[in-house]
Amino acid sequence: MNAKKKNLIVGAGFAGGTIANLIADKLNEQVVIIDKKSHLAGNSHDFRDENGIMIHKYGSHIFHTNSEKVWNFIKKFGSFNQYMHKVYALIDGIETTIPFNFNTLYNVFPQKLANKIEEKLLQKFEYNSKVPILEFLKQDDKDLKFLANYIYEKVFLHYTAKQWNVNPKDIDSAVTARVPVYLSKDNRYFQDKYQGIPLEGYTKLVENMLNSPNIEIRLNTNFKDINEQFERIFYTGSIDEFFDYKFGILPYRSVNFKFETHTKDFYQQNSVINYPCNYDFTRIHEFKHYLNDKSDKTVIAKEYSENFELEKNERYYPVLNDQNINLYNKYFAEAKKLNNVYFLGRLGDYKYYDMDKAILRAIEMFEEVCL
Ligand code: UDP
User: What is the CATH number of domain 6-83+198-247+318-369?
Assistant: First the structure.
């Protein structure tokens, strides 16, 4: 009999990988980590295809964080390049930068109009400030009102309808606030101190986290098929599934990627181009840009949003509105009654975490529960 404590981690994405690593490494306890998928790294999973191009199977993942704690943790498991993400969007037929900033202003409007608006913006807002679009809409000045309506319509309205199947005003305001109007000339999508793509990919990063004699990995494994006893369970799957959906199914949005291989150096000028107003897809990803992969081919993915349905597709985004948060809260209340079962991760917490936030949550949970 092994005297070490046994922990079960359900889900081998960033949240599961982080807590598994910390328990195995810092406590020297045994960990079994399972995933129903056939691979590690959850929806951050990537792999090199036959052309040597690193493909992000579930869409572009860009690591970015301001947290020293997260950065110091994650960089132990692999090196990152110095990629700084930019996103272009097709607005009025022009490929321009988003978040909408002063450069976008000059790209889409005649110079005279842009000058006038820029002046008014600088009178009203501090340079470098970020204003969520739903806030930005509250303008008294006629020109600023025109600008706000323009951005709302051309950047947010149709994209959000495609992505969430609702109007931007009917989704948690934090969602559109992720892409604020940016009173700046900084074209980057994120301003975090640390940004990059892991040189050997996200899957390798998670594999390295789990590389310990204390950790046993079981892929293609469902939680319901586990019969052993564990002293602690960390569950990063969807919390409603754990409770057999007894209060109802938590809604998520899913994504369907249509991959295409083209025989050319590059398909588009940037890793991601958004199509807020055109076509049925929201954006096109081109993966070669991330690690500067060399090939005479290139792989792109057109991203189509759809509703999550059990057994049909994957969960990607929690649909955060009052009704769904109330439903989540019912499950959360049930979870609190359990001894030694802990929920974390985007699905476990029903929160729109970026990778760094999922890692931070796992580190904090480890410190709270295990130390
Ligand atoms: N969004 C938009 N138009 C854009 C980009 C983003 O309306 O061109 C809105 C949309 O509602 C989206 C949200 O902002 O879901 C957050 O965008 P982000 O790029 O952060 O989404 P993610 O990359 O996580 O899918």
Answer: 3.40.50.720
